[in-house]
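Board notes (copied after class):
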Amino acid sequence: MDTIDAMRVFVAVVERNGFSAAADALNLSTAAVTRQIAALEKRLSARLLNRTTRRVSPTSTGATYYQRCVQLLNEFDELEASVGAQALQPAGRLRINAPVSYGISRLAALLPGYSARYPQVELDLSLSDRLVDMVEEGFDLAIRITRQPSPSLIARRLSQARIILCAAPSYLARRGEPATPQALAEHDCLAYSYSDTGDAWTLQGQHGDVSIPVVPRMRANNGEVLREAAIAGMGIIAQPDFIIDVALASGQLVPILRDWTVPPIGIHAVYASRSHLAPKVRSFIDYLVECLGPA
């Protein structure tokens, strides 16, 4: 049994949730796929897949094995591509992780242009607001929106987002508009669970910075949820422009404390290692810099 081929078959079965779909994708018979998986499980002495009449899914062992297979197959493909002229051309699967709201509102519109320029690259975008482990989960590149990227990763700044304090007219009519940053402590605030400043909101004014501890009426790990709650009049939010710009333009939300600003937050492309950076990764970062412009 060719281990690399068996790993490719296993990955196809997991990603397509079945033997028949994997067989079609790999141009094999279903029986051949079944034999490959059986031989792989026998060699590993482990059950990798749960099989029912309707669905095939990985076991806990299979899920771990799948993640490593994806990583190893990517490395193997890059190793082969590095021999000869292909080393100069972006090619292969590019696994990208990005925050949900930014991925939908900004990144999605840029992907067709990159794909047209580099047709040999297969884009694989995963949207999640949690902080993924890039190496463990097999991502080539991630978009991180933070003021301080992890020192364990290589970061290239792409742009920045303005953070705007705002609320719905209905909320301000009911509770009044805070006249000073300190007044935020008396208002209903809606907080982002993954904020790097916790439950303290920092504002910059003519006479320096102030940090205001707030007691959130609600927390959420997604900015669009907070935006919709604010539009409904639930409270005040401090969210980036790419999440609230449409609501501000329509008047559903209005800025508050206009004499104060929240420090902008950087948008970064991050990757695990500077050495032997794959052409597909370098080309995608360069493309984002070209499209998003200087920070």
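Comment from the instructor: The CA atoms of residues 227 and 244 lie 7 Å apart. The mean pLDDT is 89.
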